[in-house]
Amino acid sequence: MQQKEKKKNQISIDLSLRVYPLDAVFGACYRLIDRFFVYLDQPEKGKLSVTITPKNPDEHSNLREIAGGFSNDLLHQVLRLRIGKKTGAVRDMIVGRALLSADPSAEYAQPFVDKESEMVKDLDSQAYDDKNTNKQDVFGHDYLDDPLGIAVPWEEKFADTETKVDPEQESFLSEKGKFTHE
User: Fold this and answer.
1) What number of CA atoms fall less than 13 Å from residue 12's CA on the CB side?
2) Residue 121: pLDDT band by 50, 70, 90 thresholds?
3) Are 13 and 67 in contact (CB under 8 A)?
4) For 59-63, 74-78, 83-87, which range has the lowest pLDDT when averaged over its residues?
5) What is the per-residue DSSP string for 30-62?
6) What tens digit of pLDDT does each residue of 138-173 get?
7) In this structure, are strands 11-16 and 2-5 parallel, antiparallel, or unpaired?
């Protein structure tokens, strides 16, 4: 990574695409576009030049600090991409399980994940063994149980109760012709 000042209030950073993936460079540039103009150029194969110019030069006069912040963001983006690659299968499995568990018609549906993964095999053996072949999850909770009555419609829940109306409100509303109580 090489930094050089091109013009006043402008800095250029030369990057090697072997070290910094293009997606990481785009991510770091995107984080700057609210305060800076960012220009990308490919001076030669395998190299990328990032030129940063402040939108408001009075607020951002320290170009070395701007370049240092960009370099830190660039490393952050590279790390984020690497972690995403390593944990992508687990993330997809968790999202797949969550989506499938939300569908009551898919009682025993297997998730859309890589079945060769050891982690998936371990989780599948816990979730789909002979003890848990009913509508219960691994912890023994039945998703159709409703002990608090949350899923009961309002009309069914309060069908037997009478509506009590404040006499003052009843007389006021009946005078206006908007309310009649039988």
Assistant:
1) 14
2) low
3) yes
4) 59-63
5) HTTTTTEEEEEE-SSTTEEEEEEEESSTTT---
6) 555 666 677 777 888 878 877 776 666 666 666 655
7) antiparallel
DSSP assignment, residue 132?
G
Q: What is the pTM of this model?
A: 0.51
Q: How far apart are CA 42 and CA 39, in angstroms?
A: 10
3-class state of residue 177 by DSSP: coil
C-beta of residue 92 within 8 angstroms of C-beta of residue 38: no
For residue 1 the two structure tokens come to: 């990574």
Q: Which two tokens stand for residue 63?
A: 């170009």
- Residues 6 or more apart in contact with residue 172 via CB below 8 angstroms: none
C-alpha dihedral sign at 141, 145, 148, 151: positive
Rg (CA), the chain: 31
Burial of 169 (0-12, 13-18, 19+ CB in 10 A): exposed
Distances (CA, A) of 150 to 3, 96, 100, 143: 61, 26, 22, 13
User: Which distant-in-sequence residues (6+ apart) come within 8 Å of 104 by Cβ?
Assistant: 143, 144
Tell me the two tokens of residue 41: 């150029």
Listed in sequence order, the residues at least 6 apart from 90 whose beta carbon sits closer than 8 Å to its beta carbon are: 119
